[in-house]
Amino acid sequence: MGIDKPLHEINFNDVNQLVRSGQDEWSTIEFKANFHDGGDKGKSELAKDLTAFANAEGGDIIIGVREKNSKPGEYEICGVEKNKVGDFIQRITHVAEKTCCPPLKAFDPSPPIDIPEMKDRCILIVRVRPSLAGPHSSKPDLPVYIRQKRENLPINVNELREIMDFQTTLADRAAAWRADRIMRLVTGDFPRKMGMAYFVNPAGLLTNTMNWQRGKQLFIIHLMPLAAFRRAPSVDAVAAWQSNRPRLPVLFGGQHSSSLPFTPMRDGLLACSNPPSEGRGISSYTMLFRSGALELASPNILMRGKVPGLRPDMYSESGPTAITLKECVALFDSLHIQPPILIGFHLSGVGGLQIPSQYGNKISESEGEISSPEYRLDDYSADANALFTEFLNIVANAAGEWQFNRGQ
Question: Of 86, 315, 319, 403, which has the fewest beta carbons less than 10 angstroms from its beta carbon?
Fold first, then answer.
């Protein structure tokens, strides 16, 4: 980046020192004398600047610095009007969401930086991060630009392939991580003792056992931002969470997560519902890994009855699962962890479960476990609940039906 400091810590002296050092524009620095204007041309140039940096290694667009007329290649601070900062931030947000394709979230504007002896003027820095949702185009129908030295250059086929291959590698890492976590959990390797699973007793009634055992029902959700699987993730999710403590969703908790106990772990932060008590394990937990990945697990998924079946509130549109998915996506957004996100569902102990289908309840003949593919969300506005519906249809297939009945 142009100035190696967090945005909120940058002051006038930092910018002044950069300019006075003779720093020229380069692959991570762009100087602008004024805000991009609000016309079509200005919006196009703004989209090009944002996408070019996001497709490369990121950088700082420093607004309020101009090239000297008398000495090309040298720059001076001129500032921009303070009263126009709000309008520009609205414009850049709109361009990033509506003009860039796919929508770009990998940027942050700095607070206005005061200039001594220029009371009505300031400097604004737009910091663009490398985006894993790319490559991004400055308009819906190409071309795609990449930042190289001082220019925004159209990308070639080999460079495009390089970007896409990089993302594929991250997706492979996420899939391998998820497979390892599922293997650990279905063999009972939980961060805390699990309980509250139900089983059929000799009298034919469902009752609850104090401890989860291998082969019993277990529901697992993994939400995996691709950014979490870079060799050096750019965000420490736990530190970001602790700075403002947003809601950490837990499955089937019956409690607001802000009142749940949070346990610092070596790899992240653990939130549990129904905290462990004498002879009883937790019914659900959520693990926020430092990398940004989320793991949610619960064995408390069965309704009471003579035949074990999935709890209706597990798959209703207003039930905990649907609400939790929305909250998980909102959590990533609040932590400034950029999409795309891979989402995977896993259900163990499926054999013999009563599965609601469109033609009535059916008994699953599947053996053991069902896993979804890794679904991909490219934007935080996408419908994560629709992905869970797809998984429910896979569960229905285990009972010989093609569609799950959500009772609607």
Answer: 86
Residue 117 CB partners (closer than 8 Å, separation 6+): none
The average pLDDT across 15-33 equals 84
DSSP class of 259: G
Cβ proximity of 211 and 188 under 8 Å: no
pTM over 0.70? The answer is no
Residue 239 tokens, joined: 């530190």
Paired sense of beta strands 268-273 and 145-148, if any: unpaired
> Given pLDDT bands bounded at 50, 70 and 90, which one contains residue 408?
very low
Q: Is the pLDDT assigned to residue 211 strictly greater than 80?
A: no
**Closest by CA position to 290, among listed 261, 266, 257:** 266
Which CATH topology does 7-155 take?
A: 3.30.950
DSSP 195: -
Where along the chain do its domains lie? Answer: 7-155, 165-397
Mean pLDDT of 307-325: 80
Q: Is it true that the peptide bond before 111 is cis, omega within 30 degrees of 0? A: no
